[in-house]
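Structure in, sequence out. Go:
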């Protein structure tokens, strides 16, 4: 199971949780391989070229299977070169900063970033991805620009933030929440209409005074094109059964993620969601003239 991010981030942790339950159900080891870089296009390209026998999968997000083709000159077709297996979980973003930032709430954070924009830095985990779009949205609200720094994943970006080298990031709660709880970073808001069950003390963006900044990251499982339908069905059954396990559900909940209802866990539902997201985000990304580096 390829993960298009470095180890330690929320998507990597989710993959390892599911790999454990899949290993038991399949009677063989599910090995995680972290393949970062180029916004996840390297990882997706590897699976696009893999044998369609059910032994090579990718656990990825909309960054790879929606946004990337509008940004990078990829050598695969996300709508034709992969077989959907299941939508696994979704998560809003958490807006956090290093402790040295003087802002006490989200409005103060935007004001501080605007007033000191020449020195402010904000991290993200891939050009054109959800975390990047969140940063661009913050710049639009602030009516100014600051340095936005791409990383191979949230984990190394957060390490630099703890060290004081990066000021702000929009990241998954599963990547940054423990650092907030331990007092190493500060949280301002969650990009959703409701508060996180795992961190009910953190306000929503609406409550924090910036309504409309709603972002969600969907984690999904895919196989190479032409993977036999019975293999896809078997993998879907195994992974969705794992999602009903109370222990698995608790661990995913602790990441700040929500498991979708069963009717959204089918391969057909995932394909429908992907197409809808492409129709929504491609015009926005292209209008913003976002290009891969």
């Amino acid at each position: 199971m390829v993960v298009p991010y470095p180890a330690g981030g929320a998507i990597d942790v989710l993959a390892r949780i599911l790999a454990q339950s899949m290993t038991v159900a399949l009677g063989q080891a599910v090995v995680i391989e972290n393949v970062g870089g180029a916004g996840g296009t390297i990882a997706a390209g590897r699976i696009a070229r893999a044998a369609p026998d059910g032994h090579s999968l990718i656990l990825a997000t909309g960054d790879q299977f929606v946004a990337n083709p509008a940004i990078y000159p990829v050598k695969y077709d996300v709508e034709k070169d992969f077989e959907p297996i299941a939508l696994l979980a979704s998560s809003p973003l958490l807006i956090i900063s290093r402790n040295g930032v003087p802002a006490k709430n989200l409005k103060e954070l935007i004001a501080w970033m605007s007033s000191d924009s020449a020195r402010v830095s904000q991290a993200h985990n891939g050009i054109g991805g959800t975390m990047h779009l969140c940063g661009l949205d913050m710049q639009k609200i602030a009516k100014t620009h600051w340095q936005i720094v791409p990383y191979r994943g949230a984990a190394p970006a957060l390490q630099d933030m703890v060290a004081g080298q990066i000021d702000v990031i929009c990241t998954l709660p599963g990547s940054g929440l423990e650092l907030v709880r331990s007092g190493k970073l500060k949280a301002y808001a969650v990009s959703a209409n409701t508060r996180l069950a795992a961190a009910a003390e953190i306000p929503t963006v609406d409550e924090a005074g910036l309504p409309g900044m709603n972002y969600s990251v969907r984690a999904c499982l895919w196989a190479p094109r032409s993977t036999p339908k019975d293999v896809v069905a078997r993998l879907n059954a195994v992974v969705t059964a794992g999602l009903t396990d109370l222990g698995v559900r608790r661990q995913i909940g602790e990441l700040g993620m929500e498991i979708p209802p069963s009717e959204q866990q089918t391969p057909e539902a995932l394909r429908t969601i992907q197409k809808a997201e492409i129709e929504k985000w491609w015009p926005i990304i292209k209008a913003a003239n976002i290009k891969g580096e």
